[in-house]
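It would be a great kindness if you could assist me with a short task in structural biology. The matter concerns a single protein, recorded as an amino acid sequence and a row of C-alpha cells. Kindly check, if you would, that the fold set down in the C-alpha cells agrees with what the sequence suggests. Thank you for your consideration; the sequence and its C-alpha cells are set out here:
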Amino acid sequence: MVSVVWYKVHPDRFGGQKGIAQFNRFLSVHHRLTCLCAADNDPSEAGYPLLPHLPVGKWQFLNPINWVRIWRVCRQMNATHLLIEHPPYALAGRIISHLLGIRMVLHAHNIESEILRQKNTLHWRVAACWEGIACRFADLVLFKTPEDRDLAMSRFRVHPGRTHIVPFGVLRSACPGILERKQARLRLQELYDIDMSERLLYFGGTLDYGPNAEVVLWLHKNLLPEIRKYSQEPFRLVISGRRENLAFEWVDHLADAACIYTGDTEDTSDLMLGADLLVNPVVSGSGIKVKNMEALAAGLTVVTTEHGARGIDASVAGTKLIVSETANVLSFAEAVIQHWGSQEPTPEAPSMHAIIGRILRHIQPKGSLIADVQARRPDPKFCYL
C-alpha cells in the first residue's frame, strides 16, 4: 500500500497530524505500507517507511509531475492499494489506480466544504463539488464521524457500501493513576505560578484556526464572567496553541486575570494530566475533536457541546464527557462548576490496534485491504459499518 500525504505530519503535534501519523503507524504493523509525503516531513520520527519526495505547498496536486511521482512509487512498491489523505490528490489517485489496476482509498478527515459553508465563504460550493467528485472516485472512503459520513451520503451521493467509520484512537492502554496526575499538577503549579487551591481549566488547539479562535473569544467574553457570578472558588484557565496567521492577531490581545497563555507548547501531556477540566465550547468545524479524545484518554473530564462530542462513543466516555449548550452560557458555566472536582476514571477506550482491526476484518484471503466493492453491491438501505 502507498499512502499519499501532501502536508507536514511528522513530527505529529496537532490533531490532524496525529490522525494521519498514528493511523499509518498502526496500519503499517498489519499491512505493508510506504508513505509518499511532502519534503518538510521528518522520516526519523515516522516509525514506518517515509518518502518525503513531494514538494511543500497546497497547490502541488495541480502539478502532473507529482502525479508521475506517485505512479512511480506505486509501481516500485507493487502497491495493491493507494491511500489518499484528504481530497486534493483524488483525481491523480483515480487515474493512477485505474492505470495500475489497484484500489483507491480516500481518508476524509472532515468535510472541508461544510467548514467553509459555516463561515459563509463564497467558494464553499466549489469545495463541495471537488469533495463530492473525490468521494465518488474512491473505492472506499474512510470518515471520522457518522455525521460526516451521513453528510457525504446526502450531499455527495456517496454509496453507503463504499464508506467506513475510522474514529480517532488513543495510545494509552489504561487511564493514568492519581500519582501521575498529581505529579503533573505540581509541575504546572511551579511552571505557571498556580496556587494549590485554584481549580485549573484547560483549552488547547491551533489558535489561528477559525473554530478554535471562536472558542477562545467565547471563553473570555462569556464563560469566565459567568463562572465568577456563581462560584467564589478561585480558578485559572490555561490556553495553549500556535498562532502564526496575522489574520488572528486579535487573539493575542484578549486578556483576563484568570488566563494563562502558554504559547506553542510542544508537549501538552502535563496540561492534560494536571488540569481539573477541559473546556471546549466549539460550535463549528468538521471531523472529530482530537483534543477531546486526548483529554478523555488522560482521565480528564471534558465539558463540550453537541458539536464537540460528535464522533465520540458515549460508552467510551462514560461520565467524563459532559455535553452542554453553548448558546446557554449559564448551563455551560454550571456544568463546569459542577464537574471540575470529578475524580472518576475514564472507561477503557478503543485502541488504535482495535480500530485498525475493524478495517482489516475485510481483508481478502489474497491479502488486499478491502473486499471487491464492485462485486459486493450491498443493499442501498444497509449502512455498511
